């Protein structure tokens, strides 16, 4: 038969010489190629993935394989390599068909074992010519060689099958021998029985354990009825049950019997199961010691349950208690177990606790789902409320059927009271407007309250487990920090002030008390820090000190100002009064008296300027200065000031220049300001320049800066030290404040100028170097819309 099968395979293969295998996952491509090849009499088989391609190639051994490159799972290159690695398919010609026309794809195709390459879209003549070129006489011979390989493969497979079956038979024999050994060595008694024509179960075989357990002899029981050898099986309905198992009407059955006679005395667990048509196996085991041990175990278990510190009870399928330990009896408030046995929670507890407990029992029994650690409160027989942490689990028998439930209740009344007290303390700590931090003995943070998080900007997750030093900006000295730890690790309380740091880097002051927390043995387990933010208080202290210093400085400045004003006012008054008296003296001629009049006029103007400054600063402080802004011709104003100060320039022999760019002479330059106040600002700055310039020059001018015009007054005078440049615009401030001043003045001009510039929407500043002069700048808006509305 083996030879005939090989001949049949050769005929089948010969019929498949012109069969072409098309491997492509695109249906349209397969249909097109099938149509082209079928028109020339070729038979076609197809495959849509690599696994199918390998299987069809081995089974059909086609003359040519047309293989697509882009395939699901494995691509065409991998499929071709697998075909060439298989002895059965390695000589099959593979022609790649692909839309990939690049040289690298073609090269990969030839490297993987392909013999040709057809590019999509397909041309009928090209496909047929390519296929024909690879189907030739030599290919036929090669194909026959492949068939020989295949026949050899089939033969090898057949031989392997024969060997496999022999191995199975050997294993079956070994398994039977092993089974017999297991039966003979099994400590369980075993009878193998068959039904005879009369309907009796006859013992056909047994093991040594059966003789030992029932004290029988193997030779004496073989061929005898089971019910005579094992008479206790005659009881009640057991014989009928054995018969039904033997004929297959019942599944396996397990039961217990008790034998007490002259040979056997004990309890046996019997298992009966069918072993084939009209045959059974009877297994039996002496469980006398187990049952006695079980009874002892029940006594031990009951003793253990009664002495557990938690309530333990068991209920039947009707939610009635059948076991209750001592703790459960005490929780209910009765004296003896008999007072609760056979009762449900509806009978034991009144109102909602009883209905709740009964409902939970039903839930466990009806759904097979446990209730774990449920907190419940009830009133015992004395009326006292008790809290229990209750768990209820279903009980199952050997067949998986629910027979009741077991309940465990742990009295947590005291714990609840402690927890409530802890909760009250916790709420107090969480709601108190003081920061609380608890650390371990190494300073690692274990707890922070919400006020701490609010104050520092850190969340609790960001600080828990980290050293408390994350808040310290390094302002506390090492010695002070070591002293703090010495105090608290010695069990004492430290009190003091900290400069700490928030998450955003902001520093803040707090008053803190750090104390150790000790256990019942007096050992330090933690540290607690209670702190209060005193930044505002510290700021108030700083502000008070600064206010005191400012008040003292202001008092000093005012004293200096009053002394200065006394000098500044008396000086022109002295000239006015003195020269006025001289006008009435006949000793002086008319020319001299005219000179006296000029001195009186100049001193009067000086006094008037001082009075105007005092009035201006007073109005500014009271908010009564009015700014009347309009469009001011800048060049016209500057030319007027130049003409006004030329006489003073010649008298003091100091150059006075107007700096205007050449291109600006023909342009209209305007600024939105109060013309009188602008003139006053420039005059104050020019007067100061003349006052503090001994020789050299003074220049005034302007430039554009965006939407602003920046004016400047530049001199080559004595300059202003850097430490005075920020305060020179304050009222009553002067570089020289002593009575032996070189230069006069009330010290109000720059303060007035600064206020006026800011009121018109600009700002004022200076650049100065001592000994090299000063340049004062101030800006004003060009456009009306950029100005500050000062009339509203």
The name of the CATH superfamily of the largest domain reads Histidine kinase-like ATPase, C-terminal domain
What is the number of strand segments? 27
Largest sheet: 5 strands, parallel
Q: Count up the domains.
A: 5
CATH architecture of the largest domain: 2-Layer Sandwich
Kindly report the CATH topology of the largest domain: Heat Shock Protein 90
Poorly predicted parts: 1-16, 736-745, 785-792
Rounded Rg: 58 Å
Secondary structure class reads alpha+beta
Helix fraction by DSSP (H/I, runs of at least 4):
40-55%
Shape: elongated
Ordered list of secondary-structure elements with their pairings:
Blueprint: H1 2-15, E1 19-23, H2 27-38, E2 43-47, H3 50-60, E3 64-68, H4 76-85, E4 94-98, H5 103-111, E5 116-119, H6 124-133, H7 137-185, E6 189-195, E7 201-206, H8 208-214, H9 218-221, H10 226-229, H11 238-246, E8 253-260, E9 265-276, E10 279-286, H12 288-306, E11 311-315, E12 321-324, H13 326-332, H14 345-348, H15 352-367, E13 371-379, E14 385-396, E15 402-411, H16 413-431, E16 435-440, E17 445-448, H17 450-456, H18 460-463, H19 478-489, E18 494-501, E19 507-518, E20 524-533, H20 535-583, H21 590-622, E21 630-633, H22 634-652, E22 655-659, E23 670-673, H23 675-691, E24 697-705, E25 708-715, H24 749-759, E26 764-769, E27 773-781
Helix pairs in contact: 1-7, 3-4, 20-21, 21-24, 22-23, 23-24
């Amino acid at each position: 038969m083996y030879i005939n099968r090989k001949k049949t395979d050769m005929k089948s293969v010969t019929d498949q010489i012109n069969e072409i295998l098309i491997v492509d996952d695109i249906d349209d491509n397969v249909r097109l190629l099938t149509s082209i090849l079928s028109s020339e009499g070729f038979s076609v088989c197809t495959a849509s993935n690599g696994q199918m391609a390998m299987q069809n190639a081995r089974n059909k051994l086609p003359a040519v394989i047309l293989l697509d490159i882009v395939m699901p799972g494995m691509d065409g290159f991998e499929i071709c390599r697998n075909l060439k690695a298989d002895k059965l398919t390695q000589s099959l010609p593979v022609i790649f068909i692909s839309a990939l026309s690049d040289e690298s794809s073609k090269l990969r195709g030839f490297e993987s074992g392909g013999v040709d390459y057809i590019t999509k879209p397909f041309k009928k003549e090209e496909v047929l010519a390519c296929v024909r070129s690879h189907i030739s006489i030599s290919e036929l011979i090669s194909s026959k060689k492949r068939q020989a390989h295949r026949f050899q493969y089939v033969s090898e497979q057949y031989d392997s099958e024969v060997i496999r079956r022999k191995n199975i038979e050997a294993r079956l024999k070994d398994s039977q021998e092993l089974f017999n050994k297991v039966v003979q060595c099994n400590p369980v008694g075993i009878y193998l029985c068959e039904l005879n024509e009369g309907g009796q179960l006859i013992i056909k075989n047994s093991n040594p354990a059966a003789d030992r357990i029932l004290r029988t002899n193997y030779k004496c029981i073989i061929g005898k009825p089971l019910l005579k050898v094992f008479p206790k099986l005659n009881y009640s309905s057991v014989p009928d049950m054995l018969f039904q198992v033997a004929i297959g009407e019942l599944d396996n059955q397990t039961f217990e019997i008790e034998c007490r006679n002259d040979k056997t005395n004990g309890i046996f667990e019997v298992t009966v199961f069918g072993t084939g048509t009209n045959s059974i196996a009877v297994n039996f085991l002496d469980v006398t010691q187990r049952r006695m041990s079980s009874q002892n175990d029940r006594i031990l278990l009951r003793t253990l349950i009664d002495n557990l510190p938690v309530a333990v009870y068991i209920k039947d399928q009707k939610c009635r208690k059948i076991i209750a330990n001592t703790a459960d009896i005490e929780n209910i408030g009765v004296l003896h177990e008999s007072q609760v046995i056979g009762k449900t929670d509806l009978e034991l507890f009144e109102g909602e606790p009883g209905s709740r407990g009964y409902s939970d029992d039903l839930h466990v029994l009806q759904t097979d789902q446990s209730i774990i650690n449920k907190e419940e409160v009830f009133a015992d027989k004395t009326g006292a409320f008790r809290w229990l942490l209750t768990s209820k689990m279903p009980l199952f028998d050997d067949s998986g059927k629910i027979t009741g439930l077991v309940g465990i209740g742990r009295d947590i009344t005291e714990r609840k009271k402690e927890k409530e007290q802890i909760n009250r303390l916790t709420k107090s700590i969480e709601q108190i407007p003081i920061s609380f931090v608890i650390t371990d003995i190494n300073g690692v943070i274990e707890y922070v309250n919400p006020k701490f998080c609010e104050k520092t900007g850190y969340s609790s997750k960001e600080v828990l487990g980290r050293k408390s030093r994350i808040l310290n900006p390094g302002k506390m000295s090492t010695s002070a920090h070591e002293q703090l730890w010495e105090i608290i690790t010695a069990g004492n309380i430290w009190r003091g002030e900290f400069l700490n740091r928030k998450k955003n880097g902001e520093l803040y002051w707090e008053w803190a008390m750090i104390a150790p927390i000790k256990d019942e043995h007096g050992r330090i387990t933690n540290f607690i820090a209670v702190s209060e933010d005193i930044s505002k208080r510290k700021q108030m202290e700083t502000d008070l000190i600064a206010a005191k210093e400012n008040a003292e400085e202001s008092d000093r400045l005012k004293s200096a100002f009053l002394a200065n004003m006394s000098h500044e006012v008396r000086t022109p008054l002295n000239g006015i009064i003195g020269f006025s008296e001289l006008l009435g003296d006949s000793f002086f001629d008319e020319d001299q008296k005219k000179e006296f009049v000029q001195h009186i006029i100049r001193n009067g103007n000086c006094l008037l300027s001082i009075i105007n400054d005092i009035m201006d600063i007073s109005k500014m402080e009271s908010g009564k200065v009015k700014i009347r802004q309009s469009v001011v011709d800048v060049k016209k104003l500057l030319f007027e000031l130049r003409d006004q100060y030329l006489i003073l320039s010649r008298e003091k022999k100091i150059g006075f220049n107007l700096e205007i760019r050449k291109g600006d002479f023909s342009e209209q330059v305007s600024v939105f300001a109060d013309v009188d106040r602008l003139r006053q600002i420039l005059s104050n700055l020019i007067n100061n320049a003349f006052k503090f310039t001994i020789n050299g020059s003074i220049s005034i001018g302007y430039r554009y800066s965006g939407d602003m015009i920046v004016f400047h007054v530049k001199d080559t005078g004595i300059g202003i030290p850097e430490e005075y440049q920020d305060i020179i615009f304050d009222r009553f401030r002067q570089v020289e404040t002593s009575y032996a001043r070189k230069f006069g003045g009330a010290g109000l001009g720059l303060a007035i100028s600064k206020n006026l510039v800011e009121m018109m929407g600009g700002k004022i500043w200076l650049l100065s170097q001592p000994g090299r002069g000063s340049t004062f700048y101030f800006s004003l808006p060009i456009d009306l819309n950029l100005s500050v509305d000062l009339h509203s």
